[in-house]
Every structure is written in C-alpha cells, then in structure tokens.
Amino acid sequence: MREVDVVIARRLDSGVPLVGEVSRYIISAGGKRLRPALLLLVSGALGCRGEQRHVLAAVVEFIHTATLLHDDVVDESTLRRGRATANESFGNPASVLVGDFLYSRAFQMMLGANDMRVMEILADATNVIAEGEVLQLMNMHDASLDEAGYLRVIRSKTAKLFEASARLGAVLAKAPREIEEACAGYGQALGTAFQVIDDVLDYDGDAHEMGKNIGDDLREGKATLPLIAAMQRGTEAQRALVRHAIENGAVDELDEVVAIVRQTGALEVTRTAAAAEARRAIECAKLLPSNEWSEGLVQLAAQLLERRH
Q1: Dihedral of CA 183/130/251/147: which sign?
Q2: pLDDT tens, position by position, for the chain (309 residues)?
Q3: What EC number is given for this enzyme (predicted)?
Q4: Which one of 146, 165, 195, 305 has the minimum C-beta count within 10 Å?
Q5: Which residues fall within 8 angstroms of residue 57, CB to CB, at 6 or more apart?
Q6: Which phi and psi angles does 84 have, rounded to 5°?
Q7: Contact assessment for residue 153 and residue 135, using Cβ atoms and an 8 Å cutoff
Q8: DSSP string covering 101-157, please?
Q9: If you ran DSSP here, which 8-state letter would residue 265 be given?
C-alpha cells in the first residue's frame, strides 16, 4: 500500500493548481483503501508480484475518488471522513471537474498495462457505476422500492468496483477463468456486504466515528434496506410514517424512523443480509490457493461485519 500511495502522489501532478489541490484534499482524507487493498491481496494470493499491480491499485482508487467527488455534489453532502466535503470547501463546479480529471487520469494510467482485458474490465466497471448512480437518482424518494431494486443499485454503484478490483488481480496473475470468476464473485459479495453495513450505520452508527452525518440517506430520500425491512415488518402506522419520511426526505422525523427501524428488527434483518454476502465472499476466497494472502481475504470478509465506520 505504501507503493500504491507513491504512485497516487506522483500521478496527481497537474499543471493546473486547483486540480492538484482538490485531488489531494479528498485523497489525503484517508479512507479505507479497500479496493486497492483487494487488488493487492488477490494478486498476492495468486503469486503475482509485478509493479503493475501498484499502478492498477492506484487506478481503482482514482476511479473510486472520482465517484465520491461526483456523489457528494449530487447528494449535496457536507461531511465525509470527518471533514468538509470537497464540494463544501471548493464548490460544486471544481468538484465535478476534478472528478472528471481523476477519471481521465485513471484511463491514462491503465493504458500503461498494454492489456485490452484490463481496459475492458475497467471501462465496463466505470460504465456500470455511472448507470448505478443514475438508477439511484431515479429511485430517490420512491418508497415502493423493494429489496431486489435496492440490490440492483448497490451491485452497480458500489460492488462493481470491488468486483473489478478483485478480477484485475486475477487477470494480472494470468489465473484460469474459473479462478478469475471466483475472485470477481468475492469482490461483488464483499462490495455488497460493505454497502449493506454502510446503510445499517446510517441508522445505528455514531457520526463522529463514521465521519459523516447520521440520517443523510433519509435526507436524500434513499429507500435503503433498513427502511425497506421496517416497512415490511411494521404496523400500518409505522409503514405510513417511514413512507412519508422517504418521499419527503423528512429528517425532522429521523428519531421516529430510527425507533421504528429498531423496533421492527429491521437492523437485524439487514445485518443478516450482509452476513450472507460475507459468507458468499468467504466461499469464493476458499477456491484460491491457501496462503497468507487468501487468508487475508477471508479475514477481511469476516471483519467487515464488525465495522463501525
């Protein structure tokens, strides 16, 4: 990961000062670096030690960072990773344009791999992520969204880059097709579990620990799994209140919504769904050669369920 950070710092250089300033602002905020770590773990498990893995790990982090810049503008977010979002600090136009810079820089870097399969995976992932963003936008304030529709969004918007990161590790290692698919399955399951837990924390987390505002999903009118489960399990009055909160982004009703989510057992339902995805990831990881790297993949999936931020 230190090598990846070196690549990131080097490739953020731009002749336009604001580009570098905004890019460094959001990347220096830290974050979990899960996607590049996933690529490194998979390539390590499959015996790939080439320098190209550091470059592609930086590429997926750039793509992820670009999506964050655009997300925060669309969602009108003000807090991420414990400090003001880039759009709050530099304005929406700068955030959107620097997001575009990071996307294009990522594609410049992936050309260095000189591998059409790498290009195909990343181009497809970027396109699917964009579709997921639009799909989520269409679903805003839609209280009729069901679990299948919810999963479709997060598998496109969040899990796709996890899937691509894991698949890239297998491609770099020139793994057989069945191992590549196992790696992709691991990434998709891990990414899905990650987002489901993230949605739990919006109703059961600590703002200071998470580094973002509690209730943001409700304010944005997102019908996430905790709310979907609460409406399925609640009384008619509880369903009506949650439905009204989603349709109107009624953050003033947050305390009541949180109470309903807890009373109906919706958090347990959601955590169970995340645990099922984590188990699916672990089963995929067990198809890889047994070593410290693949054991790291198993541990990552298991520990994901304990995250608090």
Answers
A1: negative
A2: 999 999 998 998 888 999 989 988 888 876 789 999 999 999 999 999 888 999 999 999 999 999 999 999 998 888 887 789 999 999 999 999 999 999 999 999 999 888 999 999 999 999 999 999 999 999 999 999 999 999 999 999 999 999 999 999 999 999 999 999 999 999 999 999 999 999 999 898 665 555 556 778 898 999 999 999 999 999 999 999 999 999 999 889 999 999 999 999 999 999 999 999 999 999 999 999 999 999 999 999 999 878 765
A3: 2.5.1.90
A4: 146
A5: 4, 7, 35, 36, 37, 39, 40, 165
A6: -60, 140
A7: yes
A8: HHHHHHHHHHGGG--HHHHHHHHHHHHHHHHHHHHHHHHTT-TT--HHHHHHHHHHH
A9: T
What's the Cα-to-Cα distance from 148 to each of 91, 144, 155, rounded to whole Å?
A: 35, 11, 10
Tell me if 80 sits within 8 A of 72, measured CB to CB: yes
Query: What's the DSSP call for residue 80?
Result: E
How far apart, in Å, are the Cα atoms of 76 and each of 86, 153, 201, 217, 226? 11, 19, 19, 11, 22
Q: Are the beta carbons of 73 and 96 closer than 8 angstroms?
A: yes
Integer Cα distance of 38 and 190 in angstroms: 10
Angle between the N-to-C axes of helices 159-172 and 147-157, in degrees from 0 to 180, rounded to the nearest 10: 50
The length of the chain is 309
Given its phi and psi angles, is residue 152 left (phi above 0), alpha (psi -120 to 50 degrees) or beta? alpha
> In the structure encoding, which two tokens stand for residue 172, read together?
């770099």
Quote the CA–CA distance of 298 and 168 in Å, as a whole number. 18
**Residue 187 tokens, joined:** 């990434």
Question: In this structure, is the dihedral angle defined by the CA atoms of residues 277, 81, 31 and 85, taken in order, positive or negative?
Answer: positive
Q: What CATH number matches the domain at 2-304, 1.10.600.10, 3.90.180.10, 1.20.140.150, 3.40.309.10?
A: 1.10.600.10
Q: What six digits make up the tokens of 97? A: 């344009």
Q: How far is CA 114 from the centre of its chain?
A: 27
Identity of residue 243: R
